[in-house]
């Protein structure tokens, strides 16, 4: 249970969290699942306040919310997930500093100096520098064989006191995804995900989804959150983000210096916010539980009314539903629901060379991505500054489809061959999700 101090802080912030979370016009604020108990609604409100709360550098008078950094991308969860939704598209960033709340710039594999990702801001130590993105147009075949221009990102790190990222590392972007309804994906049974996997493509359909298996304390768990399904639970995903994006320690990531490496000595010596009301980590277990519950108890995006039957049939006919499965069963009929209509299989798929990340020498490092849920796609596509796919490179549904390669190539090519009317019907269906 949270301490008395944290309860008071949570209740104080809960009074204003709806205003804070509703400040962006990109998406509506997260709504609670229907039929929550009074206790669950209180937990949802407390979690919303923690989600919106701004963290500060230590030491601070606000001892319950200090410990930010030493390296960080954002000062709150809501900074990257405005209203609990997706961040604005990175192609619309006005300057490199503005890019940080729209895009995390990750390094694969972790760099010996910079760690897992580039953090452009710091307290008490040098920052890692501002990453920049150059958007390069690439010719591609569009619908009906017409020429189409897709835009691909190239990442560079500006002047940094730590030098350069090692050339055999890949630098790529990750947009913060929408959070609504993720609690339902958490209760899809592991057996269902594993049953849908076909790593050797035994049925010969060109689809070979793989379940990411993660070892945690000697137990094998199925990854389902993150663009590469790196995390098995909402709580683990939350703690990873607190560590890498905000430099805050938790039970799963106990290092108070976050992503600082042994080569960044000043960073590892900076003051931290653990101790006192926070306990042994900067973010107490109770706060992690409240943030996780806020996300888990949020309602999924509401689909549009019926009327898109033709588009749904086209979606299935051209093979999209083989990965973007219209529904998955959930464990023991959660809150009256026996399934979740997220349009994903939660598996990793090879999406081809166009979406693969490459190191500084041009070598492909990884081309597999978890099937992104499509629910709420219409809201994201209609946002003032949309950014679809893992790095936000696509600003329309059509662009996102045309980027599909690898296991998605057959469906992409089938989309190209549709008539103008059929494409419009398909896009209308996708906007309705």
- Relative helix content: 25-40%
Sequence of strands across the biggest β-sheet: 3-2-7
Instruction: Count every beta strand, where a strand is a DSSP E run of 2 or more residues.
Output: 15
Order of helices and strands: HHEHHEEEEEEHHEEHHHHEEEEEEHHHH
- Supply Rg: 21 Å
Briefly note the structural class of the backbone: alpha+beta
Mean model confidence by pLDDT: 90
Count of alpha/pi helices:
14
| CATH architecture tag of one domain | Orthogonal Bundle
What name does CATH use for the topology of one domain? Cytochrome Bc1 Complex, Chain D, domain 2
The separation of the N and C termini measures 38 Å
What share of the residues does DSSP label as strand, in percent?
15-25%
The largest pleated sheet is described as: 3 strands, antiparallel
Question: What ranges have pLDDT less than 50 throughout 5 or more consecutive residues?
Answer: 1-27
CATH class of one domain: Mainly Alpha
Q: How would you sum up the global shape?
A: globular
Structure description:
The chain has 433 residues and is α+β, with helices and mostly antiparallel strands. The protein has a domain at 309-432: Orthogonal Bundle (Cytochrome Bc1 Complex, Chain D, domain 2). 29% of the residues lie in helices and 15% in strands. A hairpin with a 5-residue loop joins strand 13 (357-358) and strand 14. The radius of gyration is 21 Å and the shape is globular. The two termini are 38 Å apart. Residues 1-27 have low confidence and may be disordered.
